[in-house]
């Protein structure tokens, strides 16, 4: 392109130059003026192209993997913008140029333009906050390093920037290099390792996954997972990772059955629980998991008698618990589909947890979901429940599933044959979990929380069925109790609260006016005891003030009536002493320094503090010495005059 367009380099071709022109216009720095500004403009153009296409491909800023690459590239572009004088957010305008340039070849950029700008804008604003805090501290560090005639910034200081301000060490390195200073990478790595060790030591121990014994001798092809309770054979008993012939009352074990109707943990759904009943013992099954080779095993505790390998047992799955799990799992599928309809197809699952009592769904999204959007998502899911649609669950080749538009989880491994769960005309996903037969079985769906759990990741928790109904009953009870306390009907609660808040605000204003008047009256009496020396008036007094803010307000009132003078005020606030001192401009010129006055007075009360010549404050612990402290302050003011 450079050759055909007769340009000196790639950046001057029509693949980059429109972006450079936009950035140059924003910065007021023409391209070609200096090598430094040209490098900045080239970085911005190149990085903006990358940012635009990465976000369009579903990548979001994060602290690991490809998300970290995006974060680094984006932050570097912002930093180079600051170098040439662009202090405000600007990536949105750059992205508009990129989309306009590239849309003939990549029309999907037009469809995702608003989303790309939103993600980039959120990250850009976050980085501006980080930059402003970190840049000031880094500048001090570099200045101090140069003053000491050193050329290396110590690793612990680089780590402090990283740990306290989230300042990327790579950015610290770039900025330091501009001033001819290297960073101590080994020291930084050591500080990082030390912090990780501290965090590891502080973490609560998490229960280790129960180890299973060697299963290579088992014939997996003879094992089944038919979902019917009944008699089956125990093929293997395990304890502490070793095969055992039998297990007695109280022992924690793993069990592998010839036919296992218990559904294994997977796809965010927890495993089934229930009971195994033998002729001479009972096992309480607490969880069910699956080995990498597909063998399903149960985790449980012998609660009665003795259970042996080779014994025939009766399987009893906790069906009520499983039905609750199924409601929540199908509800999770409906939730994802509704979110994609309300927020857009950029929503991707980032994790989930399906429990009997609730469901949790993590997804990619750059900002908080609004109350209005949450209400819309909730409405759409419940509409699907009211339709009582029969689910279509089938196994098929993965290629056919993809043709149907089935959503797969990023990072999940799928075989050639996959299980597809469809809610016709609404949701199609690859899933091996438990589901209801018909959406009507879910009963009701209710979102109970929405929050951020990381950069670009949001979490929604919801409940279904009986839990959702009980939640609504609890809300109704709360509303009725609130209405009774307010002595209004339920529908009149908002109006009554608004009215009460307005009355409370007016009462607070009236109390404040009363306090101010009290303070003025008290101060009016105090001013009768003012003394004078060398043309400057001065005095000290104890005033009623519940906290430092009230004492400062009292001091401001005195200052307004005391244009040529100095004073110290004290107040007892509970078990604490507060002191404030102020001096007029004329008093300061004669040698008054209220910082020294207040500091000396505070020591009498067993405290400390200080400030500037014109204004200072302090605190103390000994209330009984308050009057002596005020007297000491007055004495020092007089001596300074």
Residue stretches low in confidence (pLDDT < 50, at least 5 long) are: 203-209
Percentage of β-strand residues: 15-25%
Report the major sheet.
6 strands, antiparallel, barrel
Secondary structure: number of strands: 23
Share of helical residues? 40-55%
- Given the structure, what is the number of helices? 18
Distance between the termini: 81 Å
Mean pLDDT: 88
| Main β-sheet, spatial strand arrangement | 3-6-9-8-7-10
Account of the protein in words:
The structure is a single chain. With 641 residues, this protein is α+β, with helices and mostly antiparallel strands. Helices cover 45% and strands 22% of the residues. It is built from 18 helices and 23 strands. The protein has a six-stranded antiparallel β-barrel. Strands 18-19-20-21-23-22 form a six-stranded mixed beta sheet, with helices on both faces. Strands 11-12-17-16 form a four-stranded antiparallel beta sheet. Strand 14 (417-423) and strand 15 form a beta hairpin.
Keywords:
single chain, 641 residues, alpha+beta, six-stranded antiparallel barrel, six-stranded mixed beta sheet, extended
Q: What can be said about this structure in brief?
A:
The protein has 641 residues and is of the alpha+beta class.
List the helices and strands and how they pair.
Layout: H1 17-27, H2 35-56, H3 65-83, H4 91-102, H5 108-111, H6 113-147, E1 152-153, H7 155-165, H8 169-178, E2 182-183, H9 185-202, E3 231-239, E4 242-244, E5 246-248, E6 252-257, E7 274-277, E8 281-290, E9 296-308, E10 312-317, H10 319-343, E11 349-354, E12 359-364, H11 371-386, E13 392-397, H12 398-403, E14 417-423, E15 427-430, E16 445-454, E17 457-464, H13 465-486, H14 493-526, E18 531-533, E19 536-542, H15 548-560, E20 565-573, E21 576-583, H16 585-589, H17 594-604, E22 608-611, E23 615-620, H18 626-640
Parallel strand pairs: 1-2, 19-20
Antiparallel strand pairs: 3-4, 3-6, 3-10, 5-9, 6-9, 7-8, 7-10, 8-9, 11-12, 12-17, 13-14, 14-15, 16-17, 18-19, 20-21, 21-23, 22-23
Helix pairs in contact: 1-2, 1-4, 2-3, 2-4, 2-6, 3-6, 4-6, 7-9, 10-11, 17-18
């Amino acid at each position: 392109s450079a050759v055909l367009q007769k340009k000196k380099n790639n950046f001057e071709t029509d693949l980059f130059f429109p972006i450079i022109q936009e950035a140059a216009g924003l910065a007021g720095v023409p391209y070609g003026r200096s090598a430094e500004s040209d490098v900045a403009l080239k970085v911005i153009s190149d990085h903006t192209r990358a940012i635009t296409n990465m976000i369009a491909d579903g990548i979001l800023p994060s602290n690991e993997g490809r998300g970290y690459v995006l974060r680094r590239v984006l932050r570097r572009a912002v930093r180079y913008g600051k170098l040439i004088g662009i202090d405000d957010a600007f990536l949105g305008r750059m992205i508009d140029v990129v989309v306009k340039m590239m849309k003939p070849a990549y029309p999907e950029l037009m469809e995702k333009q608003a989303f790309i700008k939103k993600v980039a804008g959120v990250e850009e604003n976050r980085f501006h906050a980080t930059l402003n805090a970190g840049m000031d501290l880094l500048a001090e560090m570099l200045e101090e390093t140069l003053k000491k005639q050193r050329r290396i910034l110590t690793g612990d200081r680089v780590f402090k920037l990283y740990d306290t301000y989230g300042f990327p060490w790579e950015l610290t390195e770039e900025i330091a290099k501009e001033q001819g200073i290297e960073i101590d990478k080994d020291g930084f790595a050591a500080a990082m390792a030390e912090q990780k060790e501290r965090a590891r030591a502080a973490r609560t121990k998490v229960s280790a996954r129960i180890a299973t014994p060697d299963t290579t001798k088992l014939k997996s092809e003879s094992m089944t997972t038919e979902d019917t309770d009944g008699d089956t054979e125990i093929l293997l008993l395990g304890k502490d990772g070793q095969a055992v012939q039998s297990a007695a009352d109280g022992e924690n074990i793993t069990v592998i059955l010839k036919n296992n109707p218990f559904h294994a943990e997977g796809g965010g759904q927890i495993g089934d629980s229930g009971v195994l009943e033998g002729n001479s013992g009972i096992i309480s099954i607490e969880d069910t998991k699956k080995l990498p080779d597909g063998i399903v095993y149960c985790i449980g505790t012998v609660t009665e008698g003795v259970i042996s390998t080779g014994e025939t047992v009766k399987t009893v799955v906790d069906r009520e618990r499983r039905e609750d799990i199924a409601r929540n799992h199908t509800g999770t599928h409906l939730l994802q589909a509704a979110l994609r309809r309300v927020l857009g197809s950029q929503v991707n699952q980032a994790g989930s947890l399906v429990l009997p009592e609730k469901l949790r769904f993590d997804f990619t999204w750059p900002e908080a979901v609004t109350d209005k959007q949450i209400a819309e998502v909730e409405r759409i899911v419940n509409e699907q429940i009211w339709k009582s649609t029969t689910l279509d669950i089938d196994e098929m080749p993965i290629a056919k599933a993809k043709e149907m538009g089935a959503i797969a989880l990023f990072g999940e491994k799928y075989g050639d044959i996959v299980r597809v769960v469809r809610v016709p005309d609404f949701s199609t996903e690859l899933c091996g979990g438990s589901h209801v037969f018909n959406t009507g079985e879910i009963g009701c769906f209710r979102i109970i929380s929405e929050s951020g759990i990381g950069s670009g990741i949001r979490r929604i928790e919801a409940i279904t069925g009986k839990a959702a109904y009980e939640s609504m009953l609890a809300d109704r009870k709360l509303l009725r109790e609130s209405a009774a306390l307010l002595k209004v009907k339920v529908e009149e609660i908002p109006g009554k609260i608004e009215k009460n808040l307005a009355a409370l605000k007016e009462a607070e204003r009236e109390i404040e006016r009363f306090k101010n008047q009290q303070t003025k009256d008290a101060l009016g009496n105090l001013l009768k005891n003012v003394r004078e020396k060398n043309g400057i008036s001065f005095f000290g007094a104890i005033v009623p003030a519940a906290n430092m803010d009230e004492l400062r307000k009292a001091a401001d009132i005195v200052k307004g009536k005391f244009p040529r003078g100095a004073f110290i005020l004290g107040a007892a606030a509970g078990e604490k002493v507060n002191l404030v001192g102020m001096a007029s401009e004329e008093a300061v010129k004669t040698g008054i320094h209220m910082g020294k006055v207040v500091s000396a007075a505070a020591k009498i009360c067993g405290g400390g503090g200080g400030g500037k010549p014109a204004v200072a404050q302090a605190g103390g612990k000994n209330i009984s010495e308050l009057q002596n402290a005020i007297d000491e302050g007055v004495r020092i003011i007089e001596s300074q005059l």
